[in-house]
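Researcher: Checking consistency across runs. Here is histidine kinase again:
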Amino acid sequence: MHHPDPVTRAEIRADLTRSGLNLIGQALSIFDADLRLAVANRQYQTMFDLPDDLTLPGSHFEDTIRFLARRGEYGPTEDPEQAVALRVAQARTFQPHYFERERADGRWVAVEGAPLSQGGWVTVYTDITDIKRQEALLRARSDALSEQVLLNAERLAAANRKLAATNAALSEAQRILTRTEARTRQVTEMVPAHIAHMDAQFRYTFSNRRLPVIFPGAEGDIVGLTLEQALGAATARTLHPFMERALAGDPQVFEITHPTSGRRIRIALTPDRDGQGVYILSTDVSAEVQSREALAHAARRNLAAQLTSGMAHDFGNLLTIILGLQARLAARDLPPDAAEDVQATLAAARRGASLLDRLAQITGAREPALEPTDLPTLLSDLAVLARPSLSEGTRLDLAVALPPGQLLLDPGALQDSALNLILNANAAITPPGVITLKARRSGDWLELTVGDTGPGFTPEALSRATEPFFTTKKGQGSGLGLSMVYDQTKMVGGTMRLSNGPRGAQVMLRLPWRPVARRMVLLVEDDDQIRAQVRDQLTGLGHAVIEAASLSEARALTDLPGLEVILSDIQLGDGLGLDLVGTVPLVMMTSLPPGDPLRARAPGPVLTKPVTAPRLAAALAAPAEEMP
C-alpha cells in the first residue's frame, strides 16, 4: 500500500486547517514566538485589505504593522516608525488583551488576543460596526429610531444566522482536524458563544467549554453528559422538543430565558450531515433584547407624551373654568359651611392643576424645583398623609437614619414619588401586612427604600414596571405611577431599582446627597428693589449677604475674608459683572434671553430673572471647591 510522504500529509493538514478557519466569521491570525505569521484565515486579509505577501506563513508582524500604520489604520501619527516600534514591543510581551477601536474607514473592530502555550499568540478580530450603530441609535430620540429599527433588527438577525452557520461548520472541521485539536480548541474557546455537538441520545460529544459563560452555574467539561445532567431538568424539558425536531432534520432557532440568571439566550440547532446528532450554538443575547425593549419603551413613552399632552390641554381649560367660578363664589358672603366647601373645591382644583403639571413633564424636561428640605419632617408628614389610605390591618413603619441638616431636594416630586410607592405596596399586600419606608445616607447618595410584605414583583413586572401604561392591577390603575416615579428620580440625577427582598417587593430611590451649605455671598445688583428681593431670598436660604450697588463698589469688597460666592447681574450701571471673575466663584443673573453672547461668556451658572429661591439654592448648593 502506498503511503503519502510526510510533506504531502503536512500539506493536506495545512489545507484542512485553512479551510476550517476560513469558515469562521471573524478574522483570525496566529503569530509564533518569533513574531512570524503561522496561520491566518481569508477574513483576516479581507478585513484589513492586506497584500498576499503579508498573509503568507513566515511574514513578519512588524511588516504588517508598518503597512497598516502607513495606510492610516491607527489614525494620524507624527512618527509612524515610532508607532510601529511601540506595537512590536507590546506584542513581544504576549499579554492577553481585549479592546475596541474605530478604523480609518469609520468601521469598528473588537480585538481579542491570547498567548499560546507553545509561544506566540492568537488574535480574533470581530466587526462590531452594527452594534456601535445600534448603541448610537439608542441615544437618539425614539422618533428618529422608529424609521430604522426594523432595518437594524434585520441586520442583527442576519449576522446571528451567519455566525450560527459559521460555528456549526467550525465544529465539523474540529472533528476532522484531530492533529490540530489543541490549537483549534483554543480558537473556538475565544468565540463568545457555546459551540457543542449532541448525539441522538441527547449526550454531548463535543463542547468548547464556554457553557458556564452562557449558562451561569453550569459545568465547563460536559462531554459525555446528557442534556439534563449538564443544564438541569427544567431547562432540559424546555429544550427537548426543539432537539427532537432538529434530530428529525428540521433546523431550529429560538430563544429561552435562563431560569437562574434571567439571561436571554438564543440557541441555533443544526442537524449534522450524517444524521447522528445536532450541532448547537448558544449565544447570550440579553443586551440585544434589552436594546429592542428600550426601543419599544421609547416608542410607548412617546405615545404617552402625546396622549398626556392632549389631556393636559383639555383638563387645563376645564380647571380654569372651575377655578374662576369657585373664586367668584368665594368672594360672596356665604354661610360658613358653604364657604368651607368652596375653599375645599378650590384646593382640589389647584391640586389638579399641579397634577397636570406633572403630566406635562412627560412631554418635555423641566427644571427640578430644588429647595432646602428637612427630610425627616417631610417623611413624617408623608406618613400622616398616607396612613388613612392604607388597608385595614396594614401598617406603615418609618426608619429614618440621617445626619442633621437640610438637603437640597424637590420636596413636591419626592413626596409624590414616595406616596405613589406606598400606595402601590398597599395594593400588593393582603392584610395584615407591613410597609416600611427607610431613609439613609450611603456615600454620596440618599437612599429611600419602600418595602412591603407582599408577594413581590413578578419577572414581567421587574422588567416592565417603568413602562408607561404597564400595570398589574387588572384594570384598576393607569400604569403611569412607576413610570412617573422613574422620570422624576432620573430628572434630579437619581436612579430607581426594583427588586424582591426577603419578605416582598422593594423599590429603592437613590438621589444625589446635596447638603445645604451656608455661604457668605456678595450680592451685586444696581436695582434697589431687585437687590432687596434677592437679598431676602438669600437670607431665607440661610446665607450671609453683603450688598454692592455697582461694579466699582463690588471690586472693593471681593477680597473680604470668608467671602465664598459672588452673585452679580451681568449688566451693571458702570460695567459688566463678568469683570468680577477672579478667585471667588461667580454666579451670574440676567434678563438677557438664552443665546445672548454675554450669557455665553459667563464662567459659571447663569440665572434668568426673575430669580426664584429654588434656582438660587441649586446654584449655590455645590461645594466651594466644585463651583466654577
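Researcher: Does this match what you'd expect to see?
Model: One thing to look at in this run: The longest helix spans residues 286-330.
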